[in-house]
Amino acid sequence: MESIDAKCTPLKREYDECFNKWYSEKFLDGKESSDCTALFKTYQKCLRQALKEKGLTKMIDDARPAIGSVFANYNDDNKVEDNE
Amino acid sequence: MRLFEATHVFKHDWETVSLANWRKYPNDQTPHVRHVEILNQDVDPATGILRTERLIMVRQNVPTLIRKIFGGDTSYVLEYSEVDPRKQTMTMQSQNMTFSNLLSVGEYITFTPDPENTKHTLFTQSAQLKASNAL
């Protein structure tokens, strides 16, 4: 499946592959720390840029309360990146 | 406001069903689902719960007139899920972000081992639909 921005597709695929493997072989067995953090960061960097370019960040921020998401809003971008 | 509910038993264990959820897209039955992106994902160190936020983009071929009325053929859904591997529960909550001025659909899904047969998985789904006066 392609990413919303073609530039991010290979990064997304790499992360998805890593995630599926970690999830089935480690997470479900109780090994909770992810193997895929570095891949995730790379994918996210690309994706966030794409979301900004497409003007989707506000729409996503506004929808978070309705679904009970615990994640920080994109307009708190700087805070989120510092925590990494 | 309308409330819809459904339940189903999958004849597979919870671990298999929860993994299948992550591998669901793309598939032939849902060609309208074009993109699924992970916006956020982490494991809460205190509880061991996997938390994920996903953006789902849907586009289908609609007649031009419909597209003009609704203002487009592309819609976005935001989904937040939690997987608790210790308790074997997976919960997902989603909401459409586009066209919500016309129709708002919030869906809540759970996957747990079937209490009557722990080798099977119980799926429950409930959806709340709110139509605006514009419709």
Question: Which terms summarize this structure?
Answer:
heterodimer, A: 84 residues, mainly alpha, 4 helices, 0% strand, globular, B: 135 residues, mainly beta, seven-stranded antiparallel beta sheet, 7 strands, 12% helix, Mitochondrial distribution and morphology protein 35 (chain A), Phospholipid metabolism protein (chain B)
Can you give a write-up of this model?
The complex is a heterodimer of chains A (84) and B (135). Chain A is built from 4 helices and no strands. Chain A is mostly helical and 84 residues long. In chain A, helix 1 (9-25) crosses helix 2. The radius of gyration of chain A is 14 Å and the shape is globular. Chain B is mainly beta. Helices cover 12% and strands 56% of the residues of chain B. Chain B has helices at 14-22, 64-70, and strands at 2-10, 33-43, 50-59, 74-84, 89-96, 103-114, 117-131. A 7-stranded antiparallel beta sheet of chain B has the order 1-7-6-5-4-3-2. Chain A: This is Mitochondrial distribution and morphology protein 35. Chain B: This is Phospholipid metabolism protein.
List the helices and strands and how they pair.
The complex is a heterodimer of chains A (84) and B (135).
Chain A (H helix, E strand, L loop, with lengths): L8 H17 L11 H17 L3 H11 L9 H7 L1
Helix pairs in contact in A: 1-2
Chain B lengths: L1 E9 L3 H9 L10 E11 L6 E10 L4 H7 L3 E11 L4 E8 L6 E12 L2 E15 L4
Antiparallel strand pairs in B: 1-7, 2-3, 3-4, 4-5, 5-6, 6-7
Organism (chain A): Coemansia aciculifera
Protein name (chain A): Mitochondrial distribution and morphology protein 35
Organism (chain B): Coemansia aciculifera
